[in-house]
Amino acid sequence: MRPHVKPLVKGLLRARRVGACGAAAADTLHAPTRPHPNGWFCLAFSDEVRPGTVTTRTLAGAEVVLYRTTKGVLRAVHPRCPHLGAHLGVGGSIEGEDIVCPFHRFAFDPAGTCVRTGYGQPPPKASLTRHPVCEANGSIYVWRHALGLPPQWQVPVLPMDDRQPYSHDTFDIAGHPQDVIENAFDWGHLPALHGLEDLDIDGKPMPGEPIATVTATARGTVLRGFRQSYTLTVIGLATIAARTVLPRGAGNLYVMLHATPTTPGRIDLRFGTKLELGGVPGLPERIGRAATLPVARLSSVLIQRVASLDTGADLLMWNHQEHVEQPKLAKGDGPIGRYRLWAQQFYAGVEGVRMECTDAEDVAAPSEAVDAKPAGGLVSP
């Protein structure tokens, strides 16, 4: 990380809030105008929702109750009980495979059907409103679409060991998921803000594909002093998953960044790190990996602290960043224009204005910045 932002980032991490620099958060100066995008969004890391527990999270202006049954079945539901509207996340409990309303103790099975009341009377024909939910890569995702359409694509499963949880943190900041995920294609900020050196990076999003991949090698990453190769998997406008293969077969380092829209102009930024060490020579792979889990978990906690400094620098930028619809792009910025065109697919069905943006490398005079061009209707709150 560059020294000009390091003191601000350290203050941010110590205080567990953004704002120590004195500047106003972006959402306090201008009313947010961009809508929430469609897609899968992470509402928790897997270890935050354990069997028998109930928790409430916010997604795109609405609350979602997450819970696991005693056997580990994961569900995401609308928080209001259909009986008399009690909030299932405020005193709701898990009894076996059922979630039980705290008000009249109406119980609902994993299908959402009311199966009993709290006073022995036959249950009414009532059901909870369920949300599509999936669990992948140590993260819990809930599907959201402005028109209520069912999932149009699936979260890819990365080659990682689900037995090991992430060491993670969550920040409530001003921002929009599209700007966070743009980081994967904003290559100019990597040397300028993070101090990466000898950067060699490639990867452009493909129109119509919800998943994109960026590959890179650089010095100055989390593992200081080494030139590392890493792969970024971009999942919709929700997640950047980074995987670094450690030298000599030592294992893999995963860094997970989730941007989840909560209310207009604000996001929950979830950031997690885990180190997966290779097995022990002479032992079967599964047994050898199990033997290294305690060391890997402790190492993940320590690496999370180091990685938080770099991620904190980005977080500081996002909290105060004002989205520029017509950016003056320059050669070396990366495929930001192509990314923004790609991102439009996640606003399907939402009315408003769509902006196109051309990468500086694609114009005749690549050394000159270019303006975005209006292109037709797309988004509004």
> Overall 3D geometry?
globular
Proportion of β residues?
25-35%
Largest β sheet strand count, sense and barrel closure = 7 strands, antiparallel
Number of helices: 6
Layout of strands and helices, then pairs:
Blueprint (H helix, E strand, L loop, with lengths): L5 H10 L10 H4 L9 E7 L8 E6 L2 E7 L5 E4 L15 E3 L2 E3 L6 E2 L5 E3 L16 E4 L2 E6 L22 E8 L2 H5 L7 H6 L2 E6 L8 E9 L7 E9 L3 E7 L5 E11 L4 E12 L7 H36 L15 H8 L9 E4 L16 E5 L4
Helix pairs in contact: 1-5
Structure description:
The protein is of the alpha+beta class and 381 residues long. It has six helices and 19 strands. Helices cover 18% and strands 30% of the residues. The two termini are 35 Å apart.
Briefly, what is this?
The protein has 6 helices and 19 strands. The chain is α+β, with helices and mostly antiparallel strands.
Question: What keyword list fits this structure?
Answer:
19 strands; four-stranded antiparallel β-sheet; 381 residues; alpha+beta; seven-stranded antiparallel β-sheet; 6 helices
